[in-house]
Fold this protein.
Amino acid sequence: MRFDLDMPAWKWPFYVARHPFEGFEDLRWKKAYSMRVSLVIVLCFFIITVCQQVMTGFLFNTSYVKVFNIVPLLVQTVVLFFTWVIGNWSLCTLFDGEGSMKNICCISAYALVPYLITQIVVIIASNVLLRGESAFIMFFQYFGIVWSVVLMISGMKTVHQYSVPKTLLAMFFTVIAMVIILFLLVLLMSLFQQVYVFGFSIYTELMYRFSI
Amino acid sequence: MPKMKKIATAVVSFVLAACSLATTAFADQPYEGYNYDWWDDPVPSQTGYVVDRVVTGLDFKTGTRYNTEAQLKEIAEEHGKQYFASQQEVDDYNAKLAVYEAYKDKLSEYTKYEKALDKYNTYLEKLAAYEQYQKDLADYEANPDGKDKPKKVSKPKEVEKPAEVKKPEPVEEVKELKANDILMTTVQLDNFSEPSDLFIDRETEELYIVDSGNNRILITDVNYEKEITIFDYFYNPKTKKYETLNNPHGIFVRHVRDEESDTDTTMIYIADYDNNRVLGVYKDGTVFQEFTKPSSEFYEDKVTFQPNKVVVDVAGNVYVNIKSITTGAVMFAPDGTFSNYFGANRVEQTAQAIANKFWKTILDREAAAQFIQAVPMEFSNFDIDEEGFIYTVTEAKSATTDVFKKMNPAGENILINLGFSDYIYGDKITYWWKNENFGSRINDVDVDENGTIRLLDTANGRIFEYTDECDLLFIYGGKGSQKGLFTTVRAVEAYNDVVYVLDSRKASITTFKRTEFGDIVHEAMSLYTEGKYEEAREPWNEVLSRDSNYWFAYIGLGNAELSQGNYKEAMDYFYRNSRPGYDRAFKQFRMQFIRDNFNLFMIIIAVVIVLGVVISKLLKMRKQKKAGGK
């Protein structure tokens, strides 16, 4: 079978999803990385997570939607994605990885596509299925996750030109790098908060002095 | 590449800004009357019970011992006490005592006089000697020849002659008595001292109070109208002695009906904590059985036998709760022999317990023995209902395993919630305030004649009322010093819609009576549990008009709609109130929807098939055209 590889940028994620192994090779060969498409996918990731919180049927909805807060969802999707990209880039540039940050961002986003599609199916199905039929939902959920993980491994392997064990090791250490990055962020935030409190207390003190 | 970094910077800064806006709030107390919503958040709700009255021992003034006069005389002799038939006798005795005391005073005065008289007499003698000396001295001075100088005698100090005191008439000696030495049929009641248990005998409407600090059982009726009967001496026919209690902790009363002679025997079981026994006595105070530490090999010698609570089933098996035993209640056969342990809790699956299990599978036996054995929590209290189910509660600060169990006679918990998850009893959220944990600690359970379950939370002084299927009805009580609030609750009992709560530190019994709202809820609930959903609709609507936060009313109304076939309405009622209910309603609704729109579905499917065939044909033609064009 022959494939016409001169396709528009938006078709590439679906092509890659259908061809987990040679798809990324083709992508690399054709240099068809599109930042725009990957950012749209990340946006979709965020929107679908929000939909999953709000629109999942009552029988399967376990989220706390009484007070809807978008900030944790943003952290769970967009921030986590970019932390993954930054963590992977900073790790793999040190260990002979060939991928640039743009490449890593693109393949990570493209790998998310199966997960997002099955998630849409799950959201729709949760509104028409009963609790006794939850096996279908579980199947779709796991199917999407496994497919995405396979794509992610294959993409990482191709983009950095690693062997499979090295890819797995790199992904494991990427997770650790993510934890460190997030920890530093939290630390930075609390430090800034203390600086702010310090400045504010000086300000109030001055105000008291001068008002009397 | 620089573009992406810009985007990442923007996103991170936005998140930082958003996070700094978020604030956290802490509520140290939920509402006065409250309930829990779908997300286990407390929401304000109407209360089902209000405080009726608070009773202490001082309200009863006097109590009567059940013993006969002859028995009391025997007891007095045995325990070195003095028996009095009435207050008159005590007064007489006291009068005699006063006379004797007066005699003793007079006697001491007289002995004092006697001493003074002695002194005076010696003075007189000395004075005579001195006068003699002076006379001799004068003689000597007048004619000193041939005579010795008389020996000098000094002048004695003058002593006054004491006033005369008559010797008093002797009076019969009377011993002084302390309050503890007096034994009377009628007793002046001071306050309870650390009472620890309540029991309501539903057949005779009697209320039993275990007055632990005073080592006695007090009996009155549920309205506190009957005079208190005091149980503190029990005749043991085996030792032929009258025995006392020592810090009793629990009580259970059982009626045995003899069909042949048509007599009713009342058997009282008392957990006699510091005497290491459970005492079985008849209502006339005769001991019929004593349950002591079993000498079976299944009962470890080192373990103490200090019974905390006691429960007896219909067959006469005695279940004893002992705080130092984690393998369940100690169960005795009716004849007093140890039969086995009953209904142990499961081990709480903490991280440590799981880690221990993991190491035990890896290491050999000796090394594994070094680890601390994971032991289940012992339960703290129990109750039995008319059908013979035993309900246990476990007082644990952090553990959630088996906090409340309903056990069948085989010792299996039958409230397992279809295996989905354990129920949460008491407060669903744990409050931390100034480093102290205010999570619920359930230390008593009561099941009334309608099957309503009440759990007593000693940490917050609250009573949690559940239906027999563990749906929360009401939360009431609280911690504090005002009327209706508690400091250390120990026992809860309910009879005829009145709830009795025993506070150990306040030494009082607080009765709660049901409000109108509570009556309506219970009426609706009893119709609901009977399956009369349609009849329960009216009271449920009434409940909702009074309190729209009362979530169980929605479930009741949803079931009413479901039974009428109004699936859409039922779904609306069940939404965010009951998942199983919604599931049932939605199943019917979906079925009906498909049935009603069967033609439409068929048409859509047909159209889709036709369209698919046509499009695939068209595509083929196009491809062929393309190929042909080439």
